[in-house]
């Protein structure tokens, strides 16, 4: 159903004059909005078309060609104690980009953004970024240590952590390298691969500041915390104490109502709202309080921004304001002219999304989209806007503004500062070309 | 981990004097909050206890007893294109109450509320209520009709519906019979079975009013809409036009970011915020506009409230303000005294939750809990509050107030009006008895 192709609607599912008029005419009965589909209904049949169009009549005139699901007895409750999506959705998967990495353990899978709705990412489709593969760690054996500049170093079991005061909050997580293949030119065809290192969940856990206080951390001189993961990559990242002190940084065990998934660091991961995903250390086993940045491998060699002058920027971990239209998007196919709901996602590592403007003419004119509520800080925001496609080539873009006033840049603006040799922190405006054939392609405007 | 038992923490995980003092003392280094667990750490070892406590040393002194997940290479990305929970969480399931119904097709499975966090219910654990079993209907064959008092009856394909203006909103859904077994006395031991016909999701779909307008519905004289499902139960329910006109009622295809699950009516269900689940018609195939209530079987014979005078109340479909503590709750076991995070859920079919009070002494005294944000209309709200258990018997209750000022009633108050012979719409305050042994039991105060 939702596999990335927009299928053909009846011919008169078209309204060059705009949606408002179509709706008004429909209300007044002067126009049949979807006439092609209504031949049967117009004859006055009270029986739904679904019933008419279904299973063959098995000879009993009383059965009236009812489909099997209307005639029969369905499946039992709790057929699955933990349910699965419909078999018709099996094409909606997170996927690895073939050839992107040399191993499948130090690699990425991308979330199918073009098939998703709202702001919650189903945990089964959450993007993955592993540095040494994923593990399913026994939580009864897992320990979490707080040490460094603390009065009493402490080690917590999961049970101890889960008895402490908890909070639940919705936040996006984006890999710093999301859209990273697009710096120089168009590299991949679909929204899944351009923007799919992005997901959003409701996280539950203990504010890290609570745990530091329990250990008697030196919150005055201890200006940085090192977070360390327990998998083979021993991921270590520096988190500034200012961020922790705000209470935003969580030691999380819950995600979208249940325990974290193994691929997301079960049983414990750091949640660092607004910051690139690599700092959300998975399989979290230790935090150490210190008085200076730790300069770990993954913040000095990787996850730095190569600038045009050959130097690199470091500790630029906040994900700036960004957005992307997810439908229509690259790889999809509009099979006729007429009305479409343009929809997409916007987010900012600095706070809330204030506004999303959408263009269908490559940025010459813009209309402001409708934001779905709730609009939350450092969280995905879903936007929607009406569009009537006239069948001519169109370039669709979205441009987000956050509540600091920061406006998402064009590629021209971004490259003027950053050049084209970076991997990380590409938040430029994305362009999708709708060709006359209805095919949607990834393009970059010069 | 999260299977409903709260495991033993060190002995001095206790603070009769309250959490604030424990935290202050920890900060000042005068008290070791979790001393028992910190023996190893106190020796100054920099190596996490997780590492020390793990796999046997295989003879190589450099390996330092590191656990396998720190030494080895993990599993590949996209091992599952659609991921699953940890194997250690396999006990967290939705479950049927044995013997509650005569068949497993016309039955119920309950969500494991005692194991969930935040407000989003994982779709795999969403409660089920089927009247004739569930189906996985081919969406390319599904049709949705609008007829009755309309200028032009219409039939929509899924593709047509999914091109129309969409909205996304978080709402709870509660079966009208939730907590229905508890009218007369304590019937079931756990929160899963007392309150588990309750779930909450982000729904995406088209406002029903949009579809009625497209069909040129008579919105003045057409005061009611009949919604009809396509499964064997042919569920039919009357929805007042006043509710639809507000734009709240959705014809939904999306749930928690993906397409509806088959058990939840894939590919189309009605979303009627604040109203009992039976009106959220699954496998939705038709709505008919009429000028009076339809008096369908499931609103005249079932889902009515038997009153003490022998008459029954009808069309009482809005789920009034209610709450429940999910931890600690019936069937759980507190294995020691000390600090606990009391947590639970509150909701109202009339609007937002304004306040949740919690008592640990059976309602003699109350403290106001902290509400997690966002607090949304007709949506679950997560509350948390600190508690230090002194090891004596305690009765834990929560009492929600919504933004209309309505206060959740006691059993005494509810029964004074409704008697004890109802099945539906029990929103009384739930009591959990913590015995000296730490065992938590479902009790009712007279």
Can you characterise this structure?
The structure is a homodimer of 446-residue chains. Chain A is an alpha+beta fold. Chain A has ten helices and 23 strands. Chain A has two domains: 107-313, Oxidoreductase, molybdopterin-binding domain (Sulfite Oxidase, Chain A, domain 2, Alpha-Beta Complex), CATH 3.90.420; 322-443, Immunoglobulin-like. In chain A, the strands form six sheets. In chain A, strands 4-3-12-7-8 form a five-stranded mixed sheet. In chain A, strands 5, 6, 9, 10 and 11 form a five-stranded antiparallel sheet that branches. In chain A, a hairpin with a 5-residue loop joins β3 and β4. The radius of gyration of chain A is 25 Å and the shape is globular. Mean pLDDT of chain A is 88; it is low at 1-18 and 30-58. Chains A, B: Keywords: Metal-binding, Molybdenum, Oxidoreductase. Chains A, B: Residues 135-294 form the Oxidoreductase molybdopterin-binding domain. Chains A, B: Pfam families: Mo-co_dimer, Oxidored_molyb. Chains A, B: This is Sulfite dehydrogenase.
């Amino acid at each position: 159903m939702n596999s990335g192709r927009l299928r053909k609607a009846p011919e008169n599912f078209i309204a060059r004059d705009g949606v408002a008029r179509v709706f008004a005419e429909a209300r007044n009965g002067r126009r049949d909005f979807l006439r092609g589909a209504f031949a049967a209904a117009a004859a006055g049949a009270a029986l739904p078309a679904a019933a008419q169009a279904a299973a063959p009549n098995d000879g009993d005139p009383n059965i009236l060609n009812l489909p099997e699901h209307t005639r029969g007895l369905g499946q039992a409750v709790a057929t699955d104690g933990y349910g699965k999506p419909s078999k018709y959705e099996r094409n909606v998967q997170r996927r690895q980009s073939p050839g992107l990495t040399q191993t499948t353990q130090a690699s990425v899978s991308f979330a199918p953004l073009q098939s998703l709705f709202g702001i919650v990412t189903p945990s089964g489709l959450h993007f993955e970024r592993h540095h040494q593969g994923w593990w399913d760690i026994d939580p009864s054996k897992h320990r979490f240590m707080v040490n460094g500049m603390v009065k009493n170093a402490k080690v917590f079991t999961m049970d101890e952590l889960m008895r402490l005061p908890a909070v639940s909050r919705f936040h996006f997580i984006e890999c710093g390298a999301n859209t990273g293949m697009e710096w120089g030119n168009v590299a991949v065809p679909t929204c899944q691969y351009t923007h799919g290192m992005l997901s959003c969940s409701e996280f539950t856990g203990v504010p890290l500041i609570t745990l530091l206080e329990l250990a008697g951390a030196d919150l005055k001189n201890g200006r940085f915390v090192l977070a360390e993961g327990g998998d083979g990559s021993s991921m270590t990242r520096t988190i500034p104490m200012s961020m922790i002190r705000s209470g935003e940084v969580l030691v999380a065990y819950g995600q979208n109502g249940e325990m974290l998934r193994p691929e997301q660091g079960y049983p414990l991961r750091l949640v660092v709202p607004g910051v690139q995903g690599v700092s959300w250390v998975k399989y979290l086993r230790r935090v150490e309080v210190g008085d200076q940045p730790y300069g770990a491998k993954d913040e000095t060699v990787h996850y730095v921004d190569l600038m045009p002058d050959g130097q690199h920027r470091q500790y630029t971990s906040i994900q700036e304001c960004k957005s992307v239209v997810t439908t229509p998007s690259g790889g999809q196919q509009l099979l006729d002219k007429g009305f479409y709901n343009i929809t997409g996602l916007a987010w900012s590592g600095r706070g809330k999304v204030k506004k999303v403007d959408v263009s269908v003419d490559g940025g010459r004119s813009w209309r402001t989209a409708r934001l779905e509520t709730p609009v939350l800080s450092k969280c995905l925001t879903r936007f929607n806007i009406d569009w009537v496609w006239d069948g001519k080539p169109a370039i669709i873009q979205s441009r987000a503004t956050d509540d600091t006033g920061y406006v998402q840049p064009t590629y021209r603006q971004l490259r003027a500062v950053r050049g084209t040799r970076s991997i990380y922190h590409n938040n430029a405006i994305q362009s999708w070309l709708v060709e006359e054939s209805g095919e949607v392609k990834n393009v970059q405007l010069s």
